[in-house]
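Here we describe the complex-level prediction in full. Unlike the single-chain runs in Section 2.1, the two entities below were treated as one system.
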Amino acid sequence: MSADPLIRVENVSFSYNAEGGNPIHALNNVTLQIQKGEYLVIVGHNGSGKSTLAKHLNALLTPTAGDVWVNGWNTKDKDHTLDVRKTVGMVFQIPDNQIVATIVEEDVAFGPENLGVPREILEQRVTDALAIVGLEDCRKRAPHMLSAGQKQRVAIAGIIAMEPACIVLDESTAFLDPVGRDGVLQAVRKLHQKGTTVVAITHFMHEAVEGERVAVMDHGQIVMQGTPREVFSHVAELQELQLDVPQVTALSNAMHRRLPDFPWDLITVDEVVSTVQRLDRRGSAPRWP
Amino acid sequence: MAVENGAPIIKVNNLHHNYLRGTPLEVVALKGVDMEIFPGEAVGIIGRAGAGKSTVVQHFNGLIRPREPGKVIVDGLDLSDPTVNIKELRQRVGLVFQYPEDQLFERLLGDDIAFGPRKMGVPFAELRPRVQWAMEMVGLDFETFKDRYTFSLSGGEKRKAAIAGVLALKPKVLILDESTSGVDPRSRKDLLGRIRCLHEEHGMTVIFVSPNMEDMAGLVNKIFVMADGRTVMSGSTREIFAQREQLLEYGLGVPQVTEVMHELKARGYSANLSVLSVEEAEAELWKILSS
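The structure predicted for the assembly as a whole is:
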């Protein structure tokens, strides 16, 4: 990895005062580096601090202690807030809160237009962004007449059209149907292949499989980090955190207990099926008592 | 109309609906939906975004009225009849939306949950036990939570509170329109367990809309598949998920473990396609590998 990460989160803590109560420590000394072009997935429960961390990545929040550096700019430096936000685009949990226009194409154009993108380029950007999220046909529709999943994709297109170096998706697939979700994941994959840095926040563990690196958060800290396979192999710890383990991983774990040759850390359907084939082909002689 | 024993509690016949009818922005949402849901069933409705799932369920408590020639009969009430008692209907059919926590508005949680039954004219003396029952059904301890400020609750707690507000009406039918989406896995699993209990132990008819096929498989006995404004498949959960190819055509999937069985079958194994849970899949794989 290059020595020059796009985002550096250094010993960041964030606290706020709850209504009449004690301060709440949403982040507790978090350190994290996000490399250019990386696909990082952050998983954890509500209240684990993952959304709070996400909001630090484009200066919506600034640390109570510690620093966040985006492309060399400290997010606390107000002179560079716009630069930071141009670099890191954010898609929120609820698309309705992010949609501003009454026509889909106008909504998608809103961001880049305000960044001063000239009209000729703007058209193309909107077209490309809608193509990536698969909403070309909805270009002239009204966002509030779309389904929740379609609206979420409009919101994503609005960010894509600004062409940020990094896109942060804060549980943006929570409401999509399987194909809609695949559509968004494909779009994100496409963006990632084009070199965009992706930070996806989700509670869906099967989406974590998409990433190159997974960070698990709990109580404002990163408690586990690694490739999806490394992280999923900690089934017991994940279950203790009451996070979902993909069904196939749970299945491979259960099979491993019955049959030690069956790997315990499979993460895709295809791996499970291939394993069954491999183990089944080991000759026709009786294999087990 | 008296409801006979064994008659459907909800019957939908040839239902059509257009949004913004008569304007240039008209969108056809429903093009012919038929459904029969029987008392005590737990039924799932699946379909891609825009298939019309929410539009259908919003007919069930009269938020949208059926248009000729479509018919919706709910618990004996013909909803095309303009004189039908909507208040009565909404007491019998509780609808929980996506992001129901947005519906909380009272300062104190107990008041919020009591709002519905109070408006329905439930006598004051009965309110407290009702609210208590509803809160306990969703796993919010009455004494701990009744005087909490609604804005101070966590996302999962707000979600439960909103569902309790609907349950406090003691509906016969509970509709959850993606109401388990967007909360973390811990709260989601907890909620699913409580919904299952309402269905299994309290005989409540449950209509469940969710994009999560694994959750669907764990909760409902019957599934309606919607595509492009129509009901295109219906059957038991096992029957539906055994037809992967067709579901894929409609842009839907099957639970991951069912997918494993379908893949095994495609590679020549005599795999049981009606597998719905990890435990069942484990038993099947074991059967294949130990035979």
